[in-house]
Design goal:
The chain has a single domain, classed as Cytochrome P450 (Cytochrome p450, Orthogonal Bundle). About 50% of the residues lie in helices and about 10% in strands. The longest helix has about 30 residues.
């Protein structure tokens, strides 16, 4: 197990990171798109922990070890303050996220926006937010009883997305929405995110050239803007929960000049997490739980003992330690954020490889989470990896599903809380079984989504 956190003084001239074999013009995009995670893992097996990818004419240096993440995101973060220019990978995503706190490439703008948003995620709000999440989950899973009685399979990814959207819309906008409304917003956001991958090729095509994907993207983007505008209007009404994020930012705006456009960008970045990143990670959790019955039984036993048939509260969360470990291991295997982009402001050297000024580097979280020198049998689902005894000697950035450094996701604890509450409440009420014959693959978008859905049959407990 490797725990080294410092770098030896280079004794030789830094080498150029090896470059993965690529196609003319489109680079490694086609094999990356077709083979997805296997392509990245095979490239690491062939070239090592540091290598260069050509993504449709934009070279990125891939970093695949936690000490590389520490170097870029913590120890030498001042040299990697920006995300870099609009490469083929990023260019198509800019119109969606705008200058939200998770998407702006400007480090000074990010710092101002982070200060504005951070108070909303303070631990003083945890009790209120936990109550809101628990209520949203209970309301969302109540109709599952009829589904269980009918013996009808439930597509968990869609169900989890609706729950996530309902909970986050309540937090961000202070209003309750019907599942259909949240589903429509999630669908529109996800269509724009899907285009991000098509955009790696589409950005090479002149804007005047007819492109169905581009037209669908523009239509979805317009739908997102219209729905977000309506939700912001509702959030600022006296009838909304006054503790919602939009009202907090609007009040700050009176003092610090937060604009309506910034409200929109912050709202969209929150909806990105609620509609794709978090639901994808939680869907994979249910995928794994249905395929490892012993894990589900252990979660159920813990939940029964801790809750005693009562709804979970903030005070219950420390008693649901194994439930949290299940989430942590699921997020390791299928991280909601699986790579982080930065640009080198000056020449650098990482592990004996030259990083020239202006280089785009990518901390590949998926490679870190599956590194065989850190995780024994890394493809195996084993929640016990996250006991305190096994976690202590591990590199602190060996597990980083929400990023690391200054720009670590503000909502990481809220995401884990929502996941812990959701898994606990579902396992308290139901036993889940995988549906025979239903296969689940990986869809590579801005998150690792389950392709083909996650299908389960439900049996009421108790």
């Amino acid at each position: 197990m490797m725990t080294r956190t410092t770098f030896a003084t280079p004794t030789t001239t830094p080498r150029t990171p090896p470059k993965v074999a690529a196609w003319p013009l489109v680079g490694s995009v086609p094999p990356f798109y077709w083979r997805k995670l296997d392509f990245l893992l095979q490239a690491r097996a062939t070239y090592g922990d540091i290598y260069t990818l050509d993504l449709a004419g934009s070279d990125v240096i891939v970093l695949g070890h936690p000490r590389h993440a520490q170097h870029v995101l913590q120890d030498h973060a001042s040299n990697y303050r920006t995300k870099g220019g609009a490469t083929g990978f990023r260019a198509s995503s800019i119109p969606l996220g705008g200058d939200g706190v998770t998407t702006t490439p400007d480090p000074d703008a990010w710092r101002r926006q982070r200060r504005a948003v951070q108070p909303f995620f303070h631990k003083n709000h945890f009790d209120r937010l936990t109550s809101a999440m628990t209520a949203a989950i209970a309301e969302s899973i109540a109709p599952w009883q009829a589904i269980a009685e009918a013996g009808t399979p439930l597509e968990m990814a869609e169900a989890v997305t609706q729950i996530s959207m309902k909970a986050v819309i309540k937090m961000v906008f202070g209003v309750d929405v019907e599942p259909r409304t949240g589903g429509q917003l999630a669908q529109a956001v996800n269509r724009t995110l899907d285009y991000m991958w098509e955009g790696m090729l589409a950005h090479l095509i002149p804007t005047w050239w007819p492109s169905p994907g581009r037209r669908h993207f523009q239509h979805a983007l317009q739908s997102v803007d219209e729905m977000i505008h309506d939700l912001i209007e509702q959030a600022l009404q006296p009838t909304a929960d006054p503790h919602n994020l939009m009202q907090m930012l609007w009040r700050k705006g009176q003092e610090e000049g937060v604009t309506e456009a910034q409200l929109r960008d912050e709202a969209v970045t929150m909806m990105f997490g609620a509609s794709e990143a978090l639901p994808a990670a939680l869907s994979w959790t249910f995928y794994l739980v249905t395929r490892y019955p012993q894990v589900q039984r252990q979660v159920q036993a813990e939940v029964d003992l801790a809750l005693d048939q009562n709804p979970p509260t903030l005070a219950h969360l420390p008693q649901l330690a194994y439930t949290r470990m299940v989430l942590q291991e699921s997020f390791r295997l299928y991280a909601p954020i699986y790579w982080i982009q930065r640009m080198a402001s000056e020449d650098d050297d990482i592990d004996g490889f030259a990083i020239p000024k202006g280089s785009i580097v990518v901390v590949l979280i998926h490679l870190i989470h599956h590194h065989p020198d850190i995780w024994q049998d890394p493809e195996r689902f084993e929640p016990e990896r996250f006991t305190p005894e096994r976690t202590a000697p591990r590199h602190k950035l060996a597990w980083m599903p929400f990023g690391a450094g200054q720009r670590v996701c503000s909502a990481r604890e809220h995401s884990l809380m929502l996941g812990q509450l959701l898994l606990a409440q579902v396992c308290q009420c139901y036993h889940l079984e995988a549906v025979p014959g239903r296969t689940t693959g990986v869809k590579l978008s801005t998150s690792l989504e389950p392709k083909g859905g996650v299908w389960a049959t439900l049996e009421r407990r108790g």
